[in-house]
Amino acid sequence: MEKVFRYNEIASGIATQIRSGILKAGDRLPSVRMLCKEHSIGMNTAKRVFLELEAQSLIEVKPQSGFFVNKLDYLRLPLPEASNPSLKANLNEPSELITKVYSNIGRTDLTLFSIGVPSGNLLPLAKLKKEVLYATRALTEGGTEYEPLQGNVKLRRMIAVRSLAWGGNLSEDDIITTNGGMNALSFCLMALGKPGDTVAVESPCYPGIFQLVISLGFKVLELPTHPVTGIEVDALKKVLPKINLCLLVPNFNTPMGSCMPDEHKKEVVKLLAERNIPLIEDDIYGDIYFGTQRPKCCKAFDTEGNVLLCSAFSKTLAPGYRVGWMAPGKYKDKLLRLKLVHSLSSPSIIQEAVGNFLKTGRYDVHLHQLRRTLQHNYQNYVQAIADYFPEGTKTSRPQGGLALWVEFDKGVDTIKLYDLAIKKQISVAPGRMFTLQDQFENCIRLCIGLPWSDELKFKLKQLGNLAKMIS
């Protein structure tokens, strides 16, 4: 039985009072000290109670005033439907649409709701510049020499230390660094599959994964996915005889933002291991959780080395640095041979800089602020959608990550919405980008990684008005 912590018990009681209307919007909650006195708990436990309630978007913090019950109108927006793709391999890639949307990367004249990375305003750019300078001075020959094949030792050691937070027990020798997260996924697919093999993925799924899998000559099988709990495990059971590989983003996947419960992760790992089907796990969003505890990885339940865990710092620290890594379990030797052939070495200065940023604790300080900002952004986005979007609009309820999935009524064509919005200097990601099948035409993904402002709120209002025009 899963242990129930005291802070969770108290937070659940307060959450019930808020949802039932006993505590109303604007009501002030007890202070940290008062909560300690009422429940005979310590300060740290009381603080975790409020963090948990914040993660559920039930309360807000007003500096020097205290904790207050949030306006809950936006939480009453219904959830999008669980996906129901055909359980047959498909290669109908919307390449023209993907190219059109991603060609907007770097355009400063647009509000880029379509690109799933945090704004530079949310990243510690000045500190990173200093770390790069320090790395140049610290490394032999100023960082011009090749790194060891497995990658920078300091970086691998710090990644291993951080694995304890999600139930892992990695050592630096388990880890291989790569040039970004997609490079890690590419190596794993190339090492384990061959053209004609079938890869199971979530539906909807990040377009880059589709493009990568198809470019390698593989077939894609999309799995039914719930916006809260991720893939339907029963559906995976049915297709096991049809697939050769499985590639999942269990924690806060894009675009839905779902997070698989631990029992589902454990069952998926067991099912795939029994059939010797490798699981490639992309945990690129795992550090961006809104609650008090980081979710576990599937790798935490891997006893046979069948899970190849991949991640990167592209979504949390510096997209352009291209610092990724993988823990490929029993497939490590295959991956090392492949890295030797395809890239030999990773950029030494950048890896040293990121490794040192982790070692000094600055990364954790940055993550704390980033998570808080993204959580507030999520609340602000959904409130704006509740205020300005057509009646009947549905939104996901991510507990982390960078994505918000929006579902309109069936009559709204979001490719047409994209074309109208771009004329207003607004770029969104139409739902058809995230599937190889004819579905999600009435959905969009919004990135919540932009700094909240009155201008951003106005852009969402404009987007809502455009959606009303075509609904």
Task: Describe this structure in a few short sentences.
The chain folds into 3 domains: 6-71, Winged helix-like DNA-binding domain superfamily/Winged helix DNA-binding domain (Arc Repressor Mutant, subunit A, Orthogonal Bundle), CATH 1.10.10.10; 77-122 and 364-470, Aspartate Aminotransferase, domain 1; 126-363, Type I PLP-dependent aspartate aminotransferase-like (Major domain) (Aspartate Aminotransferase, domain 2, 3-Layer(aba) Sandwich). It has 15 helices and 16 strands. It has helices at 6-19, 32-39, 43-55, 95-102, 125-138, 153-162, 181-192, 207-215, 233-239, 262-274, 332-342, 348-359, 362-388, 414-422, 454-470; strands at residues 59-62, 66-69, 111-112, 176-178, 198-203, 219-226, 230-231, 245-248, 279-282, 307-312, 324-327, 394-395, 403-407, 426-427, 429-430, 443-447.
Spatial order of the strands forming the largest sheet:
4-11-10-9-8-5-6-7
Instruction: Indicate the proportion of strand residues.
Output: 5-15%
Shape: globular
SS content category: alpha/beta
Total discrete domains:
3
Which CATH top level class of the largest domain fits? Alpha Beta
SS elements, strand count:
16
Question: Biggest sheet: strands, sense, closure?
Answer: 8 strands, mixed
Distance between the termini: 48 Å
Describe the secondary structure blueprint for this structure.
Layout: H1 6-19, H2 32-39, H3 43-55, E1 59-62, E2 66-69, H4 95-102, E3 111-112, H5 125-138, H6 153-162, E4 176-178, H7 181-192, E5 198-203, H8 207-215, E6 219-226, E7 230-231, H9 233-239, E8 245-248, H10 262-274, E9 279-282, E10 307-312, E11 324-327, H11 332-342, H12 348-359, H13 362-388, E12 394-395, E13 403-407, H14 414-422, E14 426-427, E15 429-430, E16 443-447, H15 454-470
Parallel strand pairs: 3-14, 5-6, 5-8, 8-9, 9-10
Antiparallel strand pairs: 1-2, 4-11, 6-7, 10-11, 12-13, 13-16, 15-16
